[in-house]
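Second attempt. The first submission of GTPase subunit of restriction endonuclease had a stray character pasted in from the spreadsheet, which I only caught after the job came back as garbage. Lesson logged: always re-copy from the clean sequence file. Corrected sequence (853 aa) follows.
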Amino acid sequence: MSTMWGIHNDQIPAAELLAGQFVSIGWNEIDDVREIGNDQTALKAALAAANPDAKPGALPVWAGVLRRFAFEMSEGDLVVAPSKQAPVFNIGRIAGPYEHHPEVPEHRHRRPVEWLVTDVPRTAFTQSALYEMGAVMTLFRVTKHAEEFERVVENGVPAVAAAPERRTRVRHGLLQRTVLEVLRDRGSTPRHEIIKDVATRIELTGYETSRTAKGIPRFEVSITWGSVDMVAAGWILKTKRGWILTREGRDVLSKSTEADDLSKISGAAYKELRAAKRAQVGRFKTDRYPLIDEAVKLLEEGQWTTYSDIAAVVGSNPPSVGEYLLNRAIGIDGRYRVVPVGQPPYRDEDRAALEAEGVSFDDRGLPDPLKKVSTEDLRESMDLLGLLPGVPRRAWMVRGSSVAGQDLVPAWLDDGEVTLLTSRLRPVQFGASRDELKPIIDEDYAHASYDVRVEKMDDAHAFLTRMQEGHLVVTVDDGRVFVGTILEAARQRATTAGSSELVRDVEWADPGGVALSEISSTLSTRLKVQRDIVDLTQQIDLIEDLLDAEEENVPPAIVERAPLREASPELAEDLHVPQAWLQECIDLLDDRPQLIFYGPPGTGKTFLAQAIAKHIAGENVRLVQFHPAYSYEDFFEGYRPQEGGGFTLKPGPLRKVVSQAKENPQDAHVLIIDEINRGNLAKVFGELYFLLEYRTENVELLYADEEFNLPENVFIIGTMNTADRSIALVDAAMRRRFSFLPLHPSEEPTNRILRSWLSAEGRPRRVADLLDELNRRIDDPDFKIGPSYFMRSAVHREGGLERTWRTSILPLLEEHHFGEMDARAVRTRYGLEAVSAAVDRTEDPTDAPSRTH
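This time the job returned cleanly.
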């Protein structure tokens, strides 16, 4: 059998290739490849020099195509060239060596071809052969289905339908027109009767009658999806008895022609209506919200999904999706089909609506998982309809360090590939859709749970179909990260253990890899997600930087936060504390990003926390105060009632800080938790407690179906009033996760703050002497009085000191000695007169203002 090549040409029409008897490829900036030689490294260098802005991962792919075209293609090899102008193939034989034609404007790299058969319809070949020819590489070997193409060369073109149908297109406009005709002829008609009638009135294509992963014919999905648009356009009404054609519907049916695509007209009306409602509400202005509209439209009767699934597809977050869908003013039809993760629907009417569509609920109030539309189901459907923005290149992690007890990564690096173990999976084809994979996975893994089958389908679909030539692939082994570029389509092979695996060829940038400790924490955290295949496209810039570093054999550039701003003399002077003490606070935050100031009331804990936070983070500071009723839902995220009824998932202060920090990884962000010891920390932090100690790990969230981590540029400063609770009573888990700094009135730096402030204000030092004497009389260090009570101008006016002592100081001490001393005894021991008398006995006769700092 001859070697067979597939080649795609987007620049030169097929008619010109046939007339000129050649095939060609681009890269005009590269001169005669023979002068460079059959050297992949030299070709990459030439391409890099000619394309300085090219992504590093693209260069090995381009070099491989040029090298194969010039040196591996041999005279006598067969070549299959799909036409871009018609659904046909042209097949020929390479008739000579590589040629370079500098005189032509496009595609100067050429090979002469003797065309053997031309204009062969796509329907002459099996679907799996079409999948193989659908590779996105410019040049590739045809291996699995070469015999099919050779048979056409030997036996001629078989008798096939002259007008091959397009496999991946539903005629939405024709279906909508037919629905209107059914309603015109029959009047009010139930939906299921409309579906049956449409199927008898037009000849549906094989693709339109094929079923989705949920077992519903695609034409029926289109009718259901399009009916929302037709309602928005005013063409039909939906009632309990059936659908009704309106006057506007009759008008559009009579005035439009067969050439008019009614789906585009109704779709535009729907988008205009949704935009008007968003404008009326005055919120929801980003381009994500129209995508949420389209995602909900795709949910058919009897199906449901979650806020997290939609958020993952449209690039939003679950709270935003929930808030949008539950807003009554927005009024999205079918919004009850979207529910929270692991929670019952918020409203009884929503559950009733789902039950009316055949969705059952378990004892916990959760809907039937078999009726759920997954993230990947939504993504595939929206991709098919062209609703999602295109992504030119993706990146993937494939886990191989521990697969069935084996470390596969060394073999991957040696053999230039990645694999996915599919021990029970029958032979499947490259490019298989989720609809085609679902019944296979369900049958081959019937012994597994529903969740396992969904994960198997997601992984197989990603490996076979979503991963494409030119995409980046990442794997981790023994503390090192390896990056490569996918070169070929997927294939399946048997393993030595008697099972099977899927294979993708990869060109690894550097077999030595990069140390995991040297890469960005954002990327390293994502690499810890416990799935066999993970979409890393959101981190593709970091991966391309890493690939660039491996190509050039230099350390990777790490996008980390800037160093914390050091304590300045000006800050120390403003706060009346030593600069060295402030620097110690900042150093502690740099080492362990959680710090607690603890001490009695009035020692300036909150004031210092705010000042230090603003110094290191500028305006990126939030403050929250804990109390006994404070909960996880208040602190991180939880469901809250909204105006008009229902609930919505609302982010709390920590979720907001983390979102801002992830968008700006180089900046510090500080959350101040005032009186942190008053809250039940295990209850408030929940699963996030773990992240305080392990910032580079992930946890699964309570209300959102996502893995979450706490960025390293988020800092938490807490304050703790020891008059409420001694630090000795703080549990070991909290002690381990926070650094603690005391602020006691009789210790540094607090014992000098008041004197420094009085000196700066030009006031007598007597008030500081009074405070020292008062604290000398208080035996319990956790109840000594802090200086902030006396650092207000009102205290130093006529009668101000006596009033402060009587209304602020003595009540604290009466509470402290409750049951031990009555109010008279407290005043006798701690009253201003008693303390002043003691100071007078030791004070110098002259009380001049102190200027000592």
